[in-house]
Amino acid sequence: MQISKSLRRLIYWELGIPLALLSIGIYHGLMQTIYRSGVIHQSNFAHLDYYQGLTLHGVINAVVLTTFFAVAFGHATITFYLKKEPNKIVAWTSFWLMTIGTGLAAWAMLSGKASVLYTFYPPLKGHPFFYLGAALLIVGSWLPLFDWARMYVQWKKVNAEVKTPLAVLGTLVNFTIWFVCTLAVAYEVLVLLLPWAMGWTPTVNVTLARTLFWFFGHALVYFWLLPAYIMFYTMLPKLAGGKLFSDLAGRIALFLFLLFSVPVGVHHQFSDPSISKGIKLFQGLLTFGVAIPSFITAFTLAASLEYAGRKRGAKSLLGFFGKLPYLDPNRFLFAYLIAGLFLFIFGGLTGLVNASGQLNNVVHNTAWLPGHFHMTVAGPVFLAIIGMSTYLYSKTSGKRIFLPKVNVIIPYLWVIGILIFSTGMSWGGLIGEPRRTNLGLTYLNPKDPLFTPEWVPTTMLALAGGIIMFITGVLFFIVFFGTMLRKRVQEPILELPVSEVLHDEKRIPLFDQFKPWLVTMGLILVLAYTPALINAVKNTGPGAPRFTPDNPVPVTTENSVGKTVKNGSVNTSEITGKLVKK
Ligand code: HEM
Ligand SMILES: [Cu+2]
Question: Of 141, 246, 250, 497, which is most buried by a Cβ count within 10 Å?
């Protein structure tokens, strides 16, 4: 379909800005593997410190890129399926809020004032602009939901008996999850962290902050993932040359995500002492609930691919795998999606280890974790994002892809890089190699008494994988930005691959309306989170003063020195004496 120039521009910027920033993210990815393997024994390189780089890496790759993309892709799917464009004032306001927020946070990180990692746990304190930037990015990403919901209600009035297109359902489910979960992090940032970072409140309740963060943080991973799921259900079967096996399966999976995405965040806090065992067990069980939509998806997609392969002449039981268009430059999106799905098998399996209370003790805070999530967020999520960005850009600009044959092998190179990288990280994790640690300074420095030779092969493997990933990342930039520099040769249009459905079940009202699901979502949330939050408020230890990453002594301001801080919390002046640091 034809779309207005304004919407086209919006989509270009929302894809282009985070992809340009991604160059910083990918650079630091490579650097981390270099520091960690002991190739260098420095705390910083090119004026950027390890933790500053790690913060930039996590925030840009996992938060900025994913959020901008979800919004751009949401505009594209809603416009394409509802055949109507979103309100431009809302869409551009959202864009500017996200961009200004990203700019503020980027300034804080690049100037070294917010090396607090993308989880920004207190008592580490970042510059107030970091928190403000994050809040603006989030609020900006909320706005389109209200406009899309309005468009959907109008569409439904005219099409009451028509099933809501799966992609529209997915986008609305995703942004509903996003809206609900970000309320918690907005509260954390605006009520707990900002006043504390400004020095207005002397201490902060660390457990409460962490609990609110993970209320958001786990749902965040589904917010990353659902755009990829939308592509898997509504595009992959078509790209493979077949049909979606069941439309209803997709609907059920999406609604189950609405129920299970948020009330499981405590599985990131299995080691937090203030939260009681019962809540950990309950949320741990709910976590396994997410396995249901995942298996529904795995079987539905496998059946859809089998159908495609058999249509192309496959005969034997698994012969269909050999008949799929893996290297067709005209269907390069297939390559990105199938490569991501392949990585996701390992991402899912390692995730089951993390989610199991006892096993989690073995891998907690080890390199196993980044080994796992580079096969999820840097796997299917990342590949779907970069593949779809190239696709959407090329269609809506009317430009041909630069180096199409390179484009179609990028996802496979990435898979090779990740598999080597994650093998090194996971193996290292199992023999105690910590995450979030610049190992080259000590553990992988032969001159240091802490030198740990067992971690030489594991970190070297991660380095080898990191180099391949970095080179693949550079190839992607050449293809994407090379395409941008080309001349328009076709009519610019908005077009998405649309899969027909093999079993197009008749409309079941329960699976075509939001209300019952939203109510159930609210109920499970209250059940799962009321006790967790009560624990966090009741079992709070001493409130934590502010620390910066470079100093074991808390930051304190002129006027809090010598004054006793509020009830039960530490007296920062006792610890610091007269030391004053701003
Ligand atoms: C060249 C490609 C990449 C390399 C070599 C790489 C490498 C690494 C390494 C070694 C770590 C762990 C550092 C530590 O814990 O000390 C890490 C963390 C992380 N990476 Fe990557 N990565 C790459 C791409 C990506 C992508 C594409 C994403 C997401 C879309 C991503 C998301 C993350 C996140 C969220 C963390 C955790 C940060 C933290 O612990 O605060 N990475 N990466
Ligand atoms: Cu989680």
Answer: 250
